[in-house]
Amino acid sequence: MYKTPKAFLITDIICIILLLVFLLLLPSKLFKSPTSFVVEASNGNLLSAAIASDGQWRFPVADSVPVKFKDCIIAFEDKRFYNHFGVDFLAMSRAMRQNFRAKSVVSGGSTLTMQVIRLSRKEDRNIWQKIYEMILAFRLELKYSKQEIIGLYAANAPFGSNVVGLEAASWRYYGRNAKTLSWGEMATLAVLPNSPSLVHPGKNSNRLIKKRNDLLDRLAKLKYIDQGTANLSKLEPIPGKPMPLPQNAPHLLNRFKAERASLEINSTRITTTLNEDIQLKVNAILKRYNNRYRSNDINNISALILDAKTGTVVSYVGNIYQPENTELLSHVDMIKASRSPGSTLKPLLYASMLNDGFILPHTLIPDVPTQIAGYSPQNYDLGYDGAIAADKALSRSLNIPAVKMLQQYKYERFYDKLKKLGIGTLNQPADHYGLSLILGGSEVTMWDLANTYMGMVRTLNHFNAYKGLYDPNDYKQATYYHPKKDPDKDYERNSFLDHGAIWATFNAMEEVMRPGDEGLWEQFSSSQRVAWKTGTSFGFRDAWALGLTPSYVVCVWVGNADGEGRPGLVGIEAAAPVLFDLFRLLPNGKWFETPKTKLKKIKVCKQSGYKAGEYCPDVIEDWVPVAGEKTAVCPFHKIIHLDKTGTYRVTDQCESVTSMQHKSWFILPPAMEYYYRIKNSDYKNLPPYLPGCDLSGGNNVMELIYPKNGASVYIPLELNGTRGKIVLNAAHRNQGSKIYWHIDHEYIATTTNYHQLAVSPPPGKHTLTLVDENGERLVQVFTVMDKDKKK
Question: Which residues are 17's β-sheet partners?
Fold first, then answer.
């Protein structure tokens, strides 16, 4: 019968609608069940995993399925898998005949494709549901490749208990990657989705072995393996009790869970940049030290290793993971925790002052008792050098010189520099930290600290590659996964720290004596050159060690996650030995190249480290950062006038100018001189004045070390309840001189040579007057605070 055009149109519309319905049958995402978070090493091996939110061990779909599993599952479930379009009608007719004869279900005709559909739907099945599954299976074949379909099956098939998917099953039952399983092991797993209840330790063993052995014989019959391999595989044991999954990077796993959305990673699986071998060895080293430190109630330790060449994470151990001991707080990721940095920021101040032209590498810095607005820093050894070269102060981690340098540089400027360098925990105004910023008065994370130093390393490494220019991306944080593409290079003429300042800083950091080596490490050619720094926070709460080479940055923290301090928790003793054990895991390499175009050779006073002035007798040429040209000339070498014998100082009032000798002399201020000459036997005191010379006009022969002019002091009570005393301390340039002490114009006492005096003046403002035997006077004021008014 002839159809009208209208009938053709209706027919076409119906066909189009049916086609659209067919095409839209499959959801965009076939499986919506939550998956486990999985962290893999750079070689693809499993480091850590977390159970899915529904209590199942279910890994995300893998990129590839092991060939052995493909062969096993096809031989067992669907031998014509590659020859049908989702439905195997031959298999279905065979199954129907067998089931009819047996009057029960003894065989199934479902293909792997149909089983994928059934796994995704999880609905009660009847004849209509099965027909619908066949249609969906055909649709699935049109959308996915055969390899993708097997991948979906391998990732979502049940393997007994709460184990879903081949990869989770391989780790739970064999403790290994599925790609490493033998034929016997893979055949065992291949028969489980068909009967997942077979896996019960001590139960159903014979049934499981029979099903596996039958599959091995079938593999031999289908020529996947030879019969000899099949027979040997039958001798392999079947799995028993499920094994715990590896937890070799649990803190990085938690970090990935927290950051996955911001990293724009869709999968809950990530292949990281971590080196599996190094990660496992770092875990072992930290565990060994942790066992030792636990005897002193030091419970936590962490380490981070960054590859400076690639800007990636090599090892990430946020803590010693001991979940069975909850009181140890081992779940806390100390790499992300904000802690006091101790002295680990001192190299950044040293580099900043070199970069901005405040000092040269060996400039003398005061190291004397210091009080600044009530703040009195102390060196770790409680001693004083009087004056010490800036690089030596850094290598010895002296606190007072660091505070003096920050006072000169200004803590506000340093605060801004730290923020630019990547220290992201400075959430208070600069005034909140003040000068304590350089001694651990702020907080920092190991992540920020290591990344800041890595930025410096990368900047220096790229000196030649970038032809002396700077890439701000060098200070970008390290990544623990492979990003899609490298950031665009954006070279600039200036950076936060220039090449010369960084190079000089790393040289100073290399001079530190290593723990236990007593300097002998330099005699061994196999020893790595490492620039490093330790840190200890106030109250012995944090012990730090940070080291770097052109290839790696390593950071170690030791302490208690709850902030409890412990005696002996010191960077050089607790963290530094760990640091060098970790460096022994890493390959040696060349040291940094000297950035000569970013250095300038200038004349430097050998004794003071300042730019040489006209009176400096011993001048050397030294490579310094370019900004070193802006530094001041040596203030300590001055011309003095001696009599013709060279024994006494004279003036034109007691000696004719023609009879005088004019000589350059190294003269430190009295307080610096007082301590400097104790440790420097070659320091020459100024000659005394010739008797009868007029000394009027002041000669700066005395200096009050404590208290400083205008200081406020507090006198505490002793243990017995009596009022204590303060110790006044002064320095005189001439040894053996007498000083007469007066408080509020009343004579108190006389001291000779060693000028210290214990007094207990009442609360209020006082005038302190010092007079030496030559009539030189020093007048200063100080205030004793009232206990009742002390805040």
Answer: none
8 A C-beta contact, residue 369 and residue 707: no
Closest CA to 61 of 171, 196, 157: 157
Nearest CA among 458, 483, 450, 452 for reference residue 309: 458
95, two tokens: 């199954």
d(C-alpha 723, C-alpha 119), whole Å = 84
Q: Is the peptide bond before 707 cis (omega within 30 degrees of 0)?
A: yes
Rounded to whole angstroms, the Cα distance separating 348 from 564 reads 27
Residue 594: alpha-carbon gap to chain centroid:
26
d(CA 55, CA 35): 10
Check: CB of residue 773 under 8 Å from CB of residue 759: no
What is residue 773's DSSP assignment? T
User: What is the C-alpha separation between 776 and 92, in angstroms, rounded?
Assistant: 116
User: Please, which residues bridge with residue 301 across strands?
Assistant: 558
CA angle 667-672-678, nearest 5°? Answer: 95
* 3-state secondary structure at position 302: strand
Give residue-wise pLDDT tens across range 84-97: 776 766 656 565 56
Burial 581-613 (b: 16+ CB within 10 A, else e): bbbebbeeeeebeebeebbeebebbebbbbbbb
Binning the chain into helix, strand and coil, the percentages to the nearest 5 are: 35, 20, 45
What is the C-alpha to C-alpha distance for residues 215 and 236, in angstroms, rounded to an integer? 14
The DSSP line for 60-73 is PPPS---HHHHHHH
Q: Which two tokens stand for residue 50?
A: 């977390």
Question: In the numeric block, which tokens belong to residue 197?
Answer: 């209840």
Look up the pTM and report it: 0.84
Strands 542-548 and 726-732 turn out to be unpaired
- R_g of the chain, CA atoms, integer Å: 39
Distance in angstroms between the alpha carbons of the first and the last residue of the chain: 108
How far CA 226 is from CA of 178, 180, 188, 220, in Å, comes to 21, 19, 18, 5
Sheet containing strand 269-271, strands side by side: 46-50, 37-40, 269-271
Q: Which residues pair with 784 in a beta bridge?
A: 713, 764
How many other C-beta atoms can be found within 10 angstroms of the C-beta atom of residue 292? 12
**Strand residues in 251-317 grouped as ranges (E):** 269-271, 300-307, 312-317
Rounded Cα distance between 83 and 69, Å, is 18
pLDDT single digits (tens) 276-294: 999 999 999 999 999 999 9
Q: Quick check: 720 and 686 in contact, CB under 8 A?
A: no
548, 583 contact by CB (below 8 A): no
CB-side neighbour CA atoms (13 Å) of 478? 34
From the list 350, 355, 429, the residue with the least C-alpha distance to 390 is 350
Greatest alpha-carbon pair distance for the chain in Å reads 145
Q: Could you write out the DSSP letters of every residue in 173-236? A: HHSS-GGG--HHHHHHHHHTTTSGGG-BTTBSHHHHHHHHHHHHHHHHHTTSS-HHHHHHHHTS
Q: Is 102 helix (H, G, I), strand (E, B) or coil?
A: helix
Three-state DSSP state, 363: coil
Angle formed by the axes of helices 205-221 and 183-191, nearest 10°: 110
The whole-angstrom separation of Cα 26 and Cα 560 is 53
Tokens of 245: 């999954």
Q: What is the pLDDT of residues 366-405, one digit of tens each?
A: 998 877 665 677 777 778 899 999 999 999 989 999 999 9
- And the tokens for 126? 């009847």
pLDDT on residue 413: 95
